[in-house]
Design brief:
The protein is of the alpha+beta class. The chain is built from 14 helices and 17 strands. Strands 1, 2, 3, 6, 7, 8, 15 and 16 form an eight-stranded mixed sheet that branches. A hairpin with a 2-residue loop joins strand 4 and strand 5 (146-148). Helix 2 packs across helix 14 and helix 5 packs across helix 14 (470-489). The longest helix is centred in the first third of the chain and has 24 residues, at 2-25.
Length: 491
């Protein structure tokens, strides 16, 4: 017994030593960068111009391409009047109905071009919630240090800050080394088919190959990641795919007075049982690929047990996974998610329906295909009486952009120069962006918005009381300004 206890003690000691060494020696992945002074700005003027853009109710419609046409043309006019120096150096094209493509020719024709993306359209305000806003959602009010209104964050904040940065650079006589494209789609919130997709096709027809794209995406979070006292700038290097499966159960209709005695024979019974199994047996969850890369980038910057656990995923991986799956946002980072969203069956309370239908929405993790999801669903439902079919409009998960290339390092360096306390790490974008349409046009796509957000801010996204602080908006302009200046000097 003593020998066994001694052996166990030696094993525990060896594990503790290995964990300690791994924790201490795990190198930082942060890009070394000396702090730079951000460009001076007229913050009040910039905030006022953003507020003017917010007042334009640019809501796109799936069925009517001309919906809110005056609002979109009003935004175009606002851009032209607000940024005259930018428009003097940019070539402007309207693509489709309201899509905008700007080109700033570079001084080096051999240098691969780059693109910044944003979108003009905004989501509607949920009916009945207007009174819940501290400021009316489309009044574009500047108050208490914030620009309030729908689109201030998503995504006119990005669009206008890009134009502000170009205006400042153009006024200084700056010319980019690489050609810069500004891509402003007009229907991102409903899929981007008329705007960004058409611009991507146009650039592809012209033979344009982009070195990298920066589009809206992940944020600078503060107080969101446990164990990290510093702000975290997560740069999206991929986005999840989108797939809805239509499940249909068929059976013999009949009178409700004589239901079948067997379980799971009725259409509703078969479908309900299958859906319950799908919720119970979801796609596997694991820290792998991109999520592993993200956690290993964050680990050396963390403190306490979080640093120990994330530095030693080889040992503590199952423990970390068990904790992360308890929260919706982190659970979604680690697996292809399953969401039961629509169910229809029957039209009379005294009739057994012959058919029951359900829609199940999946957000695909990079590495999981739509075919693999169909195979998983068919196996888990396990009933030949329930058919499974892909709904139209699905998209596979995006490619994972490289984080060990000049484009990513350029974004990271720019952030670290302007905000030395920020920790930069690659991350996964859970929602869809316009940049997914550019997979065949760009080598790498980075999904990042230089927006600061704490735990209480995240609910404002597509929600009530959307706003951006004037101080943060100035940081956004300074980010794009410095990013292009850094690209100028890059090899």
């Amino acid at each position: 017994m003593r020998k066994l206890l001694a052996l166990i003690g030696l094993v525990v000691l060896a594990l503790a030593l290995a964990v300690g060494i791994k924790t201490i020696t795990m190198p930082s992945r942060q890009v070394a960068a000396a702090a730079v002074a951000p460009v001076a700005l007229d913050v009040a003027g910039a905030s006022a111009r953003l507020a003017s853009a917010v007042r334009l109710k640019t809501i796109a419609s799936l069925t009517d391409v001309n919906a809110n046409a005056a609002e979109f043309t009003g935004l175009h006019a606002l851009l032209q009047s607000s940024f005259p120096k930018a428009h003097a150096v940019l070539k402007r094209e309207v693509v489709g109905r309201f899509g905008l493509l700007y080109t700033w020719p570079g001084s080096d024709p051999k240098a691969a071009p780059i693109a910044w993306m944003a979108h003009q359209d905004v989501v509607p305000v949920a009916p009945g919630t207007e009174a819940d806003w501290q400021q009316p959602p489309f009044d574009g009010v500047v108050k208490d240090g914030f620009v309030w209104g729908r689109g201030a964050w998503d995504d006119k904040g990005n669009l206008m800050s890009m134009m502000e940065a170009v205006e400042v650079l153009a006024a200084s006589g700056f010319t980019p080394r690489q050609t810069l494209y500004l891509v402003f789609g007009d229907d991102e919130e409903i899929g981007g088919q008329r705007g960004a997709l058409q611009i991507a096709k146009l650039l592809k027809e012209r033979g344009v190959r982009l070195q990298f794209i920066v589009d809206e995406g992940l944020l600078i979070t503060e107080g969101v990641l446990k164990g990290l006292d510093r702000p975290a700038a997560l740069v999206g290097v991929a986005e999840k795919g989108y797939l809805t499966l239509q499940l249909t159960a068929s059976s013999t209709p009949g009178h409700s007075s004589m239901p079948p005695p067997q379980a799971e024979v009725s259409a509703i019974g078969m479908l309900s049982a299958g859906l319950a199994r799908l919720e119970d047996k979801q796609m596997p969850l694991a820290i792998r690929g991109l999520s592993k890369d993200m956690f290993e980038s964050l680990a050396p910057e963390m403190n306490g047990l979080n640093r120990v656990f994330l530095s030693n995923l080889w040992l503590f991986g199952p423990v970390v996974e068990s904790q992360l799956k308890k929260t919706a946002s982190t659970n979604a980072m680690l697996r292809t998610t399953t969401a039961l969203t629509v169910m229809n069956a029957g039209n009379a309370d005294n009739v057994l329906p012959g058919r029951a239908n359900a829609s199940v929405n999946f957000r695909l993790l990079p590495g999981d295909s739509s075919d693999a999801v169909v195979e998983h669903v068919t196996k888990v439902v396990g009933n030949a009486g329930v058919s499974v079919a892909k709904a139209a409009g699905f998209s596979e998960a995006s490619r994972v952009a490289a984080s060990d290339v000049p484009g990513f390092r350029l974004v990271a360096r720019t952030l670290r120069e302007l905000h030395p306390d920020v920790v930069v790490a690659p991350g996964l974008m859970l929602g869809a962006t316009d940049s997914r349409h550019f997979e065949g046009v760009a080598d790498n796509i980075y999904k990042f918005s230089p927006v600061r957000a704490g735990p209480d801010d995240l609910k404002r996204f597509h929600g009530t009381n959307e706003r951006i602080s004037s101080a943060n908006y100035a940081e956004m302009i300074q980010f794009y300004h410095q990013l292009l200046r850094n690209a100028q000097a890059a090899p």
